[in-house]
Design goal:
six-stranded mixed sheet; alpha/beta; single chain; Metallo-beta-lactamase, Chain A; seven-stranded mixed sheet
Amino acid sequence: MVDWHTRGEAGSGVIRLSEPHVNELLSANFWWLRGNDRDLVIDAGLGVVALREAIPAMFERDPMVLLTHAHLDHVGGAAEFTDRAAHPAEAELLTAGVPASLYGAELFDKLGIDATGEPVPELMIDVLPDPDYDPASYRIPPMTLHRLLDDGDHVDLGGRTLTVLHLPGHTPGSIALLEQRTGTLYSGDIIYEGALIDDLPNSDVAAYRRSMEFLADLDVSVVHPGHGRSFDRTRLRQLAEAYLRRDVQTRKS
């Protein structure tokens, strides 16, 4: 059995988890936060390996899973949780079943990604989690949400409170979570180091620009993104402003 997840301390009571054997496009971070009263897991990875089997301690306090948006690399393990939350705009897709495949060409087709001129991976993982695993069996089951969270809502874990920020653009219901006491922002796929995706069928560039304008002025200490490394407020502003410049240049060309 392959050790599928990596774990690392990301601050007091915060654990970063990732899946190193997943293709870069889908290799996402998810975050396990411990409060005094209960735990919160922000996003749930690709779901190739069952979280309850791989990380049983995560479930000891019946955590809530809060999904930043409804893409397979962030919701794959969400069905394992008994308390699931997301923005209302993502609920319909989660209920219908999030498009998913471990085969590159099939996945790109399901997501509406135009890969013209770009190499498409045959398989989105570089090793099987166990010798008997069949990639064709991978799917994300339809799931209902137990809580709908919108802009300004609070999630209180006891000694740790997070505020929901609705920042659409990547998807209609993309959210980030801000822990104001520590200045920590969990940004999902709204912003991270790398090429930001705003051309999926349900993306909205105008909304994304408004979200970036908000983030450029947001006072935070650290950003824990959905992909890649964490960064500080200076880098947050640089990334947001780079997106805003890029979009202006694209529209002029």
